[in-house]
Design goal:
Layout lengths: L5 H18 L17 H5 L4 H9 L7 H6 L9 E4 L7 H13 L23 H15 L4 E5 L1 H14 L9 E2 L4 E2 L4 E3 L6 E3 L5 E7 L20 E2 L3 E9 L12 H4 L2 E2 L4 E7 L18 H9 L19 H27 L1 H4 L1
Parallel strand pairs: 1-2, 2-7, 7-9, 8-10, 9-11
Antiparallel strand pairs: 3-4, 5-6
Helix pairs in contact: 6-7
Length: 355
């Protein structure tokens, strides 16, 4: 007799793994992860040593070392990273390369994989309300807001998702359950840090970025909904970084086009615009797995400071393709990983949670 489909088996394992991590007290039913959390339960569900909490609160988000990642951050609450690849097959393999870079730098792989089917990156052709509803579901159960990274059409998808969360396209947003692979009837979540019910519209992410966004892809009907807003970033993200490649024929970008290619805040979001070297390839920017394999390159990336790029040490001579993009994204991930973990620990230590 044939066993269950591999994707179904992975979903079950993912559900069980979620229960183990969330409860910190042994196995539980897979169905439990699909139920709405009880107010106040999320911040108390993760078994954190007091010394780990103290180390998390003592971290400087702007200067996170390799040791900080592996011995402190990786032991605490970790945001879900949602990667969005480009739309032409097989570019998803390039974003999977970036996922291997992240795990090589110390990011837990289970916080990159989709909780339902285990994918390492998501398609820009899926509905943006599905992905936005999934963000609400993750936040409700994990207590830390996700981080989004998009490449090419995946970058367009990231901007669409931010607008879905902001209510730009519809008044209400249904929660999407990745374990069941379906929308739930509800349009609200229990905020894991306050215990209060709130609409899914208005849920925000910690950080988001897009590289090589725009160009011919915007003529595709699936992206028409965001054409007029693709450079406008709403308040549903704390920090957004838009990466342009000096010369990018796919994204129709070149020097002198800053007026139409620059991202801007439609409110209070912190929006950065970064121009990458012209020799970078639009297609291959996410191919970065090799950067985490060399200790000297890892050290350079971990020491990278976007506020003082001129102060960086000379680049290693070999094997550094796409290093400026990888280093800048990794710095942002470390920063917001730290801020989210600190936010979680402070909520956990608040007197209202202890009652």
């Amino acid at each position: 007799m044939n066993g269950p489909h591999p994707a179904s088996r992975f979903a079950l394992v993912a559900a069980l793994g979620f229960c183990l991590v969330a409860s910190g007290s042994g196995p539980c039913r897979a169905a439990a992860a699909a139920e709405r959390p009880v107010p106040g339960s999320v911040v108390k569900s993760i078994a954190l040593d007091a010394s780990v909490e103290e180390r998390i609160l003592a971290l400087d988000p702007e200067h996170i070392s390799d040791a900080d990642v592996r011995s402190t951050l990786a032991l605490g609450p970790t945001p879900r990273i949602m990667l969005f690849h480009g739309g032409v097959f097989p570019v998803h393999l390039l974003m999977e390369s970036f996922s291997r870079f992240l795990t090589g730098m110390g990011y837990p792989e289970e916080r990159i994989r989709d909780a339902g089917d285990g994918r390492l990156s998501l398609s820009p052709y899926e509905s943006s309300d599905r992905h936005a509803g999934m963000i609400a579901w993750y936040y409700e159960r994990e207590g830390v807001r996700p981080i989004l990274v998009g490449h090419s059409q995946g970058g367009i998808q990231v901007v669409k998702i931010l607008h879905e969360l902001a209510g730009s396209f519809r008044d209400a947003l249904h929660v999407f359950n990745p374990l069941k692979g379906e929308f739930e009837e509800r349009t609200t979540i229990v905020d894991p840090l306050t215990g209060r019910e709130r609409p899914a519209v208005g849920v925000s992410v910690a950080s988001a970025s897009a590289v090589g966004t725009g160009g011919w892809a915007l003529v595709l009907p699936i992206h028409w909904i965001v054409v007029s807003r693709v450079r406008s970033i709403p308040d549903t993200v704390d920090e957004f970084t838009g990466y342009r490649i000096g010369i990018d024929f796919f994204a129709w970008d070149a020097p002198g086009l800053e007026g139409v290619k620059t991202f801007h805040a439609d409110g209070k979001a912190n929006v950065r615009n970064v121009t990458l070297p012209a020799e970078y390839s639009h297609v291959f920017v996410p191919a970065t797995a090799q950067l985490a394999e060399d200790p000297a390159v890892r050290d350079w990336i971990n020491a990278y400071d976007p506020s003082n790029p001129a102060g960086a040490a000379p680049l290693p001579e070999h094997g550094v393709s796409n290093i400026m993009w990888a280093a800048d994204v990794w710095h942002s991930i470390k920063r917001h990983w730290t801020l989210e973990a600190q936010r979680f620990v402070r909520a956990r230590q608040a007197p209202a949670v202890a009652k």
